[in-house]
Every structure is written in structure tokens, then in C-alpha cells.
């Protein structure tokens, strides 16, 4: 892209006033997200919207002048979706952070897109409610970003993904028009389901400027955590399948392979048990939570667990929370987000082992196991060659997941990082339909061009 | 439409062979659905597909020649979506009725679109699983029709709508191309969510030829039913709001107003209690189901219920099941499908009373109350004038629901019957986006033209 003509930027300033930021330090800080996607250069400006009208004016301007726009919540995304374009415009939503309403009777909240996930959850808890989506990034990520990526997290096994929590949206379309989707009722079948179309659309179809989301009542009583160690990851995977098929539905069900456990222990000892063993950690909630955790452990023992422990607090999840920083600190930095049907968990773990061995690289796996969603992370140096070599491992793991009936992305989305994998999963007709919808809604291709679709 | 040229029809016969039916009796039987939508004339032919290739060939033919196509499952729809076009083609899916797979470990089923809802449920129950969607039409409606209308039903209050049960689809696009959407994993964020776009699309974007759906484990133990009578419908509505907000989540929570109760009693006495009283009926399932039903009744009594009863069988739902035939038999024949947020239930009932009085017409209301979804049914003679007068009552009720934050359709969809109401709920931009997507996917406008969008 050629640099934006200064007169054009002046026109934008007339439309949005001080919301337009051109300070190079601010622009640089908003040019990348939390993924390994490389920077694509410096944007020409950033609109820090404080209301829908800023977003609308910014997109109308970009649409008129064909300026590429990146859309940004907190920038915690892991697939490159919020990376800025050289000479482009960044639309930043982090200043639109008001919780407009919490409706206790209907268990809904109306929020601006920049509200931090954990802040909404905390506000809901003051009314005995909670916000179900809980990506591990909840303390930074925004609700708008969660919706745009259809974020997952730890509680999905019990409460579903972000899509399940979204009822209605306000969206600014590529040409600046404002549209409302959905309704405040629990059921609504009125024309095409545009709400679902925008959930997970990664900034390619419009900018979400308000969301009405579902809240749930906080379950009464203790929410114990539990853990169990298994001699082999396959045994642990089979235990996951058995737990998911059983009556004691857990709130959280996570799996760490032996290498992850070892790395977490060496990063910050949290008193994890058996060396060389895979670790299942989870949580139960609601009626009989402690008994249900115990009975899950019994099932685990019957399936080969060498030890097991229930705690009334949520401390047993601490090791899981340390996984990301620990792996990065120890040089495991190239990760992916594949998913498989639950029945294929043991098979995918076995295959990942073989792939790591074939490439001669260590691969640690942390999984939202109850959903069949895995984050294998490959060891790599910092050089481009090293990253590329690790990405070849990821490609093999991804093809393996697909061969087992799986998906290339369970929760992080496509962005730029996984775009080359799209045709591995989607057929030609589906790719065509995606492109046709994109062209229909954003004919000039200004919104997050070249990503996700 | 001018009649289709016989040579064209011959070309279709070459493509689909004996699947093409032109017998006038068969065509007439497939020209309308179960709604009050008038017939639009006789179709030129019907393709009774026995496989995806028939559907693909039929749509490719219609696309080439610009022939309007209606898509039909069981024809139990209540909004006119499956009504045939004069000189058009009917694509009938009822012969594609194989259950291809029930995967117990992953709790999924793969079905052809013409499988009858109750048949899938019965097949799943042989494995201790069930199919959550349960429209009152489950014994006739097809799974494809349920998906195309995003059908609701009695168990939605506990298990959500059909959309929540759909994981992946095979769809034939307007030009005959075959596309797959979704994945077999519990989480999947790969490009735009085309699965959700086709759910509820009422035959306007493509024909569903296969679906992968979620099954759930049948809860252990008894599934008692309960009922409670209330002196006023507002008290009953407030009880619904309290139950939904409480800890004892029911499986089913239905409300019949005093007029419905009276009509059902005079149609077929089922031993219903108090005259002139509104009736709440429901069901609980899972751990402590009987105690939970009792505790729901206690709450009802505290909120004014004059009597209450729990039964270990599901007999207390019988009156609810008789509602449709009873109302029709007694001349209440023009119904609608509005929804409101739970907190507005009492207000909408009060308003419906006033509207009925203002028009001087009896209105009986049966509601999937736990979802805030109401089916008011207006008394009318059979003449066109009478129907039109009753439709004016429906229009007023619909505007009332919208003014309370509601929806024009909770579960039956738009079809032709509610199309004039679309702009009451959707803004200009949303209508435009719907049309743009329709034009992108069906540029010749052959699929269910002039309906739903
Ligand atoms: C340590 C760590 C842990 C994580 N754990 C999880 C996890 O458990 N589960 C999970 O799913 N993800 C996880 N993530 C990834 C990330 O946090 C999520 O994808 C999150 O939803 C992104 O939110 P954000 O506000 O940071 O969005 P951004 O990164 O700013 O943007 C993400 C995408 O959404 C688009 N977007 C953002 N806001 C809007 C809007 N208002 N309108 C339209 N488009 C918009 C952007 O254009 C971009 O394509 C993790 C990330 C980190 C760094
Ligand atoms: C007595 C009675 C009770 C009812 N109770 C309920 C209820 O409780 N809840 C509820 O939601 N509905 C209810 N309905 C309405 C109706 O049964 C549902 O809408 C049902 O989902 C329609 O299924 P069908 O197979 O009969 O579809 P049809 O009536 O044949 O078609 C309905 C729509 O779906 C489209 N369609 C059908 N199959 C496909 C396909 N394979 N691909 C693409 N499009 C397709 C058609 O074009 C049409 O627009 C009831 C109807 C009756 C008569």
C-alpha cells in the first residue's frame, strides 16, 4: 500500500476528531497481536472509538477511499487477525468498555465491545450470575474479540462456546451503516441468522459495537478441583472419553501431557505428582460437586490412574494456568489449536508423539480435553528457519487431526496464521460461498482483507 | 409463471429418471403445507429424491432454466415455506430417510434430511441417547425441516433449539453444487459459520441433504410431570419467571390460559382442575426429579397457585398435546408464534387480553412459557373475510410483542405468512444484508423465491 495521502487523513480527522491517533508509538503498539504472525508494517492511523458513531464514520471513510482496516479488541488473538496493514487504519474498540445493562430477570447483559471478559464476569457475579465464556486470556481479552473469534476456554465442556452466549449484536457494516441482529428472546427465527454469521467472523464482515449476551446463575456450593495422573497419555485420553460419556458432567476437564507437566514443574514447582505421567485436571460444580469429583476419580483409577486428589479450592487448576508462560519460557513457542472428536483423543496423542519423533522435535500438548481441543506446542529457536521448521511439524499435526475427523481450529480462528490450511478442511464450494458472502457484505474488501476467509 | 415447456421437463427426466413425478394427484398433495398460506397453484413436477445426486441434478436444471423450486420435508410447516409454485418444481426429501450412523462414543448421528424427528429420537434411545429437538409435530416432521426452520418444541427450555443440536451439514447449493459445512468436533472456528447460516434459512439458500446432529444421554430415573392452577394468567406468568430464575431447572414448562383449558376440557375431558384458571404444566428430569417437581409446586403455591399435582408418568402433559386439535375443532384457527423476554410474560398476556377484547374476538394462548414463546390463536370463521379479521388481531399481538422487546417468530419461521412483518422487527441494513446474502448464494433466485427473506 502506498502511504495514505495526508489530505485524506485530514478528512478522517474532521469526521472523528480526537478519536484519530497518529502518534507513531501508539500505532506501533497496536500493529500486532499475540500470535506469531509477522508485522505487516505501520498503519497510517488509529481510531480509538468511544462510540458507534466513531466506528461508523471511520468505516465510511475507509470504504470511500479503499483503505484497509484492521479491527482490534485487546490484541490477545493467536492467529494474526488484528495485525495492522501498512498504510491502513486500525479501528480500536478498547475504549468502548461500558457495561450498559445487566438484566437479572432475563439473565442478559448489554455491553460495549471493549469490555474485558473478566470485568463482565465480575460484574455479573455481583448479581449471582456469571458470563460463561472464559478463555485463559479472560483478564485481557475483550467481549468483542471473544465474539469475533468465537472464543473457547476452560468451561466450554459444560457451558459451550462464546456463540452459545450471544443473543443480539449491533454491527457497523463495511460502508459505515449500522445494523442490529438477533433479539432479546430465548428463541428467534426471523430471516437468516445474522448473529451467528458475525460470531467468529474475525473482523471480516463488520465491526461489533454492542452485544447482548446470556448470563448464567452461579451454581451453589463448592466448586472443587480434581486431578489424576496416568502412566500414559492414551490412558488419560480414554479416561476423558469415559468421563464425558458418564453421568458426572464436569465444569472443566483439561489434560497436560508428561512433557508439559515436566516443563511446568521446572518453571515453577506447584507440587505436581508423578514424573513422566500425564495429568488430568478438572472441576465440578453444582449439586453434589464433591461427590461427583470423587466419583470421576474413581473412574480414573479404574482406568489406570496412579493417583488422584480432590481439593475444595480451585488450586489444582494452577498448573494448567501456568502452562502458557512456562512453555514459552522453555522455548516451546509454535503452537496450534486442532480439534478431534472425543473418541479420537487417544489416537491423536499417539500420532502427535510419532510426528514429534519423526521431526526430532519436542512437542508438548495441553488440551481442553473434554472438548477434544488440543494445543500442541513445538520447540523452536527464534530464527525464521527454526519457526518454519516447527511450522512443518504443526502442519503434520493438523493433517493428522483432519484425518481423524477433526478441525484445523477449535477456538483461535484462522487469521493469517492458518489461512493456508483452509482448503485442507473446506471444500471448493464452501470456500466459494465464504468468498461470495464476503464480497456481498464488503464489496471493496476493506475489512481485515486477506485473512480468515 | 408460464407452464414449463414439456421439452424442459423431459430434460429433467433424463437427469433424474423415475425420481421425477408428474402425477397430478401427487403434485396436488404436495402443493401446500400445514399453514393458512393459500395455495399458489400447481407445480409442473416433483423430484422425490433418494440421494444427494437427485437434488443436485434437480437444482442444476432449475438454475439453468430459471424454474422456481419449493423444498419440502413433511409439509408440517406453519408459515407457508413449503408451498409449491405454479409451474414450479417441488424437491421432496421425504424418501431420503436413512439414519446413516449413530456414534455412541461421540454422541452424534448422521442422517438423511427426510428422517422423521421421532424416528431419530427412537433410534437414539436404543443406545441410551435422545435427539433434543421435539416440536409437537415430531411424529411427522423431518429432521431436515426442523433444521431449515430451526424448530423449537417442548424441551427447548432445557435443551435449546434445533440449532444447538446441529454440528455439520451437506447442502446442495442453488446451482447444484454440493457443499459441506461444520465439523465433527465439539468446537470449530474455521471461516464463517455456514452451518448456522443454513439452520433456519427455510429453503432459501440451499437444500440440506445430510446432517450430523448432537445426541444427549437420556437422564436416569423418573421424569415426573407436574401441574398447577392459577386464578389469573399474570400470576402464572410470574411463576414461570420465578421458576426459570430458580435452581430447579425444568425439562418442560408450558402454560395454557383459562380459555385453552376450557376448550380442551370440552373437546376431550382430561380431568383438568379449576374452571376459569390458567394452567402451568411441566416436567423435570435427572437427579432428584421428583423432589425438584415438588419444590417447583411449592414455589407456585407461594405465588398464588390454588392447586398443584405431581405425577410420576408424563400424563399431565396430555392436555398440552391436545391443545392444537382442540382449538382447531372449536374454530380457533388463526395462530401466531411471538416471543418475549421472560420478564415480559405477564405484560404480554395482559395485552393480549385487551387486544382480544378490543377486536371482540376470543383469543386462546398456549405458550412454551419457559422460553417466553407464545402461540395465541384467534377465533375465526372459514371465510376469507373472517381470516383477514383474525389476522388483524394477530398483527396487533405481534406489534405488542415487539414493543416488549420480543420477536415476530420464536420457532415457526417467516415463510410467506409473516413476511409482511419482517420490517417491523429488522432494520433496513439487516434486510439489505439478508437480500445481499440471498443474491450471492442464489443469483437466479430459484430457491423458495419471495419467502422468508
Ligand atoms: C495467554 C493467552 C491465552 C489464551 N487462551 C485462550 C483460550 O483459552 N481460548 C480461546 O478461545 N482463545 C484464547 N486466547 C486467544 C485470544 O485471547 C482470544 O482469541 C480472544 O477472544 C481475543 O480477544 P481480543 O479482544 O484480544 O481480540 P483481538 O486479538 O484484538 O482480535 C481478535 C480477532 O477479532 C477481531 N475483532 C476484535 N474485536 C472485534 C470487534 N469488536 N468487531 C469485529 N471484530 C473484532 C479482530 O479483527 C481479530 O480478527 C488466548 C490468548 C492468550 C494470549
Ligand atoms: C401440530 C403441529 C405442531 C407443531 N409444533 C411445533 C413445535 O412445537 N415447534 C416448532 O418449532 N414447530 C412446530 N410445528 C411446525 C413444523 O412442524 C416445524 O416447522 C417443522 O420443523 C417442519 O418440518 P417439515 O419436515 O414438516 O418441514 P416442511 O413443512 O416440509 O418445510 C418447512 C420449511 O423448511 C424447508 N425445508 C424442509 N426441508 C428442507 C431441507 N431438507 N433443506 C432445506 N430446506 C428444507 C421448506 O422449504 C420450508 O421452508 C408444528 C406443526 C404442526 C402441524
UniProtKB/TrEMBL annotation, chains A, B:
The keyword tRNA processing does not apply. It comes from the Bacteria. PROSITE patterns: FAD_PCMH. The keyword Protease does not apply. SUPFAM superfamilies: FAD-binding/transporter-associated domain-like (SSF56176), FAD-linked oxidases, C-terminal domain (SSF55103). Residues 39-218 form the FAD-binding PCMH-type domain. Its cofactor is FAD. Keywords: FAD, Flavoprotein, Oxidoreductase. PANTHER family: GLYCOLATE OXIDASE SUBUNIT GLCD (PTHR42934:SF2). This is Glycolate oxidase. It comes from Agrococcus terreus. The lineage of its organism: Bacteria, Bacillati, Actinomycetota, Actinomycetes, Micrococcales. The gene is dld.
Amino acid at each position: 500500500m502506498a502511504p495514505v495521502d495526508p489530505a485524506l487523513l485530514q478528512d478522517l480527522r474532521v469526521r472523528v476528531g480526537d478519536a484519530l491517533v497518529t502518534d507513531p508509538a501508539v500505532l506501533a503498539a497496536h500493529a500486532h497481536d499475540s500470535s506469531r504472525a509477522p508485522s505487516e508494517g505501520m498503519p497510517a492511523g488509529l481510531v480509538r472509538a468511544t462510540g458507534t458513531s466513531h466506528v461508523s464514520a471511520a468505516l465510511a471513510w475507509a470504504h470511500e477511499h479503499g483503505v484497509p482496516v484492521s479491527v482490534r479488541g485487546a490484541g490477545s488473538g493467536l492467529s494474526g487477525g488484528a495485525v495492522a496493514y501498512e498504510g491502513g487504519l486500525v479501528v480500536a474498540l478498547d475504549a468502548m468498555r461500558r457495561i450498559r445493562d445487566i438484566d437479572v430477570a432475563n439473565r442478559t447483559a448489554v455491553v460495549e465491545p471493549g469490555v474485558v471478559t473478566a470485568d463482565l464476569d465480575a460484574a455479573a457475579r455481583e448479581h449471582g450470575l456469571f458470563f460463561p465464556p472464559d478463555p485463559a486470556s479472560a483478564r485481557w481479552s475483550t467481549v468483542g474479540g471473544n465474539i469475533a473469534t468465537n472464543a473457547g476456554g476452560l468451561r466450554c465442556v459444560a457451558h459451550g462456546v462464546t456463540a452459545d452466549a450471544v443473543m443480539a449484536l449491533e454491527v457497523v457494516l463495511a460502508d459505515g451503516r449500522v445494523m442490529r441482529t438477533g433479539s432479546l428472546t430465548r428463541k428467534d427465527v426471523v430471516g437468516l441468522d445474522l448473529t451467528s454469521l458475525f460470531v467468529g467472523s474475525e473482523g471480516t464482515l463488520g465491526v461489533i459495537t454492542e452485544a447482548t449476551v446470556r448470563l448464567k446463575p452461579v451454581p451453589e456450593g463448592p466448586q472443587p478441583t480434581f486431578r489424576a495422573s496416568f502412566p500414559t497419555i492414551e490412558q488419560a485420553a480414554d479416561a476423558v472419553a469415559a468421563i464425558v460419556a458418564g453421568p458426572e458432567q464436569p465444569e472443566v476437564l483439561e489434560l497436560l501431557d508428561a512433557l508439559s507437566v515436566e516443563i511446568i514443574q521446572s518453571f515453577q514447582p506447584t507440587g505436581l505428582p508423578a514424573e513422566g505421567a500425564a495429568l488430568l485436571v478438572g472441576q465440578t460444580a453444582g449439586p453434589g460437586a464433591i461427590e461427583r469429583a470423587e466419583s470421576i476419580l474413581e473412574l480414573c483409577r479404574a482406568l489406570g490412574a496412579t493417583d488422584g486428589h480432590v481439593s475444595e479450592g480451585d488450586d489444582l487448576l494452577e498448573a494448567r494456568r501456568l502452562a502458557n508462560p512456562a512453555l514459552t519460557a522453555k522455548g516451546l513457542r509454535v503452537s496450534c489449536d486442532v480439534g478431534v472428536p472425543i473418541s479420537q483423543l487417544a489416537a491423536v496423542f499417539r500420532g502427535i508423539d510419532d510426528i514429534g519423533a519423526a521431526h526430532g522435535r519436542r512437542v508438548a500438548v495441553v488440551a481442553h480435553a473434554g472438548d477434544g481441543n488440543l494445543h500442541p506446542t513445538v520447540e523452536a529457536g527464534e530464527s525464521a528457519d527454526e519457526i518454519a521448521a516447527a511450522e512443518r511439524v504443526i502442519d503434520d499435526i493438523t493433517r493428522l487431526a483432519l484425518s481423524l475427523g477433526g478441525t484445523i481450529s477449535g477456538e483461535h480462528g484462522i487469521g493469517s496464521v492458518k489461512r493456508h490450511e483452509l482448503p485442507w478442511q473446506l471444500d471448493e464450494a464452501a470456500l466459494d460461498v465464504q468468498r461470495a458472502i464476503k464480497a456481498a457484505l464488503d464489496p471493496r474488501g476493506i475489512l481485515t482483507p486477506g485473512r480468515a476467509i
